[in-house]
């Protein structure tokens, strides 16, 4: 079966939904939560917040360590997901990642100077780590911008966004809970990548 991975991330974790298509029928192949931080490293969910009150050199080191950790763990998680899918004899068509607006070219100091920027940087960190992991695993990456989800969905399905979300909700009924907003967005991103 041709499948696509779809990801909707948060600080330190992501929802992963793998959707396959066979004879034009959609099927959820896998659905789970993946962790994007090391066990016991709760600070890494928000590395900029963890560095907020530190001297500049220490702050940069903490942020760098948090970013490197997220990238490393995302690759481990992506390889694990790819291996599981390949062991089931499925063909991976693409990896879709729901992404926020890009970051301005702020330095660590610029980010730490304004609290809102810390949230923005942490909101970009984990989707970026997943995108880099997809590329490291040689997967075709489809970045689905948050602000263009409805537009991309309508272009893909040729129906209003609400109708697409009804289809996604029905797909979730085939696998049961959890099938919340994160899983729906991840599934929709995967389907966009499949098409």
Topology, element by element:
Elements: E1 2-10, E2 13-22, E3 25-35, H1 47-51, H2 56-87, E4 91-99, H3 108-113, H4 115-136, E5 141-145, H5 149-157, H6 161-173, H7 181-194
Parallel strand pairs: 1-4, 4-5
Antiparallel strand pairs: 1-2, 2-3
Helix pairs in contact: 2-4, 6-7
- What is the CATH-assigned architecture? 2-Layer Sandwich
On the 0 to 100 scale, the average pLDDT is 95
Structural class: alpha/beta
Percent helix range: 40-55%
* Order of strands across the main sheet: 3-2-1-4-5
Annotation field: number of helices: 7
Q: Characterize the largest beta sheet: strand count, sense, and whether it forms a barrel.
A: 5 strands, mixed
| β-sheet strand percentage | 15-25%
Assign the CATH class. Alpha Beta
Would you identify the CATH H-level superfamily? Ribonuclease H-like superfamily/Ribonuclease H
- Ends apart, CA distance between termini: 14 Å
Low-confidence stretches: none
**N-to-C SSE string, H for helix and E for strand:** EEEHHEHHEHHH
How many domains? The number is: 1
